[in-house]
Amino acid sequence: MEFNKHILILFLIGFLSFPALSQDKELSWEELSATYEFPAWYTEARFGIWVHWGAQTEPMQGGGWYARHMYMEDVKHEKWGRNAYAYHNKTYGHPTEIGYKDVLNEWKADKLDTDALVSYFKSVGAKYFVALANHHDHFDNFNSTYHPWNSVNLGPKRDIIGQFEKSSKKHNMRFGVSSHDDRFLGWWEPAFGADTSGPYKGIPYDGHMTIEDGKGKWWEGLDPADLYGLPPAKRTPEYIESVKENWKLRHTELVTKYDLDYLWFDGYNFPYGDYGKTVSTTYFNKKRQSNGKIDAVLAGKFSSEPTTVKDIERGGASEILAFPWQGITTLRTWFYKEDEGGLDYRHSARTVIETLADYNSKNGNLVLNVELLRDGTIPTTQKLILDDVGAWIHLNSEAIYASKPWKIYGDNLDSYLKVLENSSIGEADLEALKKQKSEEHFNERTLASPAYGSDEVRFTTNGDVLYMFVLNPAEGEIELPTLGLKSKQKPGKISAIEMIGSDQKIEYKQDNNKLVLTMPANRPNTLATVFRIKGAL
């Protein structure tokens, strides 16, 4: 009997320790995907803030692809960079000698306070924070062992990702990074060109420089080829493979050295194919081994990876999606710039809030970029917008965080198109708007878009409550066919409707065909108004 008891104890010890041991096993991407579930922290967050910020904010003009466009006398269709070449010559010098490598050295980020930024972003309602690990300029904003052109070695001489990670943990914010680096070779090709006219005609730009050219200069010991890549003529298949291998080493370090909750690739599918899949596998295995589960997110423009969050650039889904997705946008431009004619804001607090409501109603998150100045601070105008967004989010938080879609995402849809159909807008312009709406990437509504009608709404649910966002409210009655008792959605008999942020009585009447609601003149603010509807679910 005593012998059997010992056997039983040993069996239980072995059985209970098995899960812990199995956590140490490295699983394949397919094995990880088979049991992966999107973590609740992400699906319930609904709103995140990103800083698309790096050395390309150092020049005050030249568009978001400054590093590429400063080498192009004519940017052709890439009009957002039309000022880069002239601005660089005037501000820094000619790119035959003073190139982007020198801009990197000028960038100091001397007022960057990661604690203050993360604390502020949390205060305006963001549930997670994302920082740029690298852009197409092939410069790492982290302490990279495998790439000397990084923010610790030059420029700010700070581990920007490390400091943001520490601050995010301090303020209990989920933290992630975005990587945009896998297209740098083609993106950098203009750095190997030369002027086509003038005194520098035919003289190669500094992309052709070698480590020998740096002797006695500030960049002595650094090889420009590590930043720009080799000249295109020297890029053998073996060299291309070495670039991919280096990418893998750098990004493996990124996902293992730093505790990331979120990894976002700016591109289609895995960067460099299997190299990107290997890094993603390492990332998920690390989270699984550290936390006992994969409480992390991988995002990107993937075409057939159900384990990833679908990323839609400057746009949103046109319907409710069964899986988590994110729409990304920025208030003005991706990197902060002051180009002539480029200071107009694409978004205000109003359009950000309309976008948030629309994305949430379709099971999506909004990731909003804040365009930090080159010194690491928030532009005053953008902070004012964020303050208003934050106040609205805090007022209406119950309809946002942990919300789920209803049976349909809205009612009285396409109200702005209906108004335009009865206006003097040309048929071609109207068709273009309809086509834009049906697409995803770059279909976002901005300050330049026609206003919503006063009766267009979006829905979310939370528990047994239906929330209704009236996007462009105006005093008077609105009719909502989807909330009629005999509509296709079959809502229940409404027992109460309350306007969030106010205790005034809301007048309404529900019959078989519609709900008629009287929008009060006095509302909590001038932005979208949210109603709490009881009994409908």
Automatic annotation (TrEMBL):
GO molecular function, one term: alpha-L-fucosidase activity
Pfam families xrefs: Alpha_L_fucos, Fucosidase_C
Annotated Alpha-L-fucosidase C-terminal domain residues: 455-530
Gene3D superfamilies xrefs: Glycosidases (3.20.20.80), Golgi alpha-mannosidase II (2.60.40.1180)
UniProt entry keywords in alphabetical sequence: Glycosidase, Hydrolase, Signal
Keyword Signal: yes
Enzyme class: hydrolase
Domain called Glycoside hydrolase family 29 N-terminal: residue spans: 23-398
GO biological process: fucose metabolic process; glycoside catabolic process
Alphabetical list of InterPro entries matching this protein: Fucosidase_C, GH, Glyco_hydro_29, Glyco_hydro_29_N, Glyco_hydro_b
GO cellular component, one term: lysosome
EC number: 3.2.1.51
Family: Belongs to the glycosyl hydrolase 29 family.
PANTHER family listed in its UniProt record: ALPHA-L-FUCOSIDASE (PTHR10030), ALPHA-L-FUCOSIDASE-RELATED (PTHR10030:SF37)
Stated name of the protein: alpha-L-fucosidase
Organism in which the protein naturally occurs: Gelidibacter salicanalis
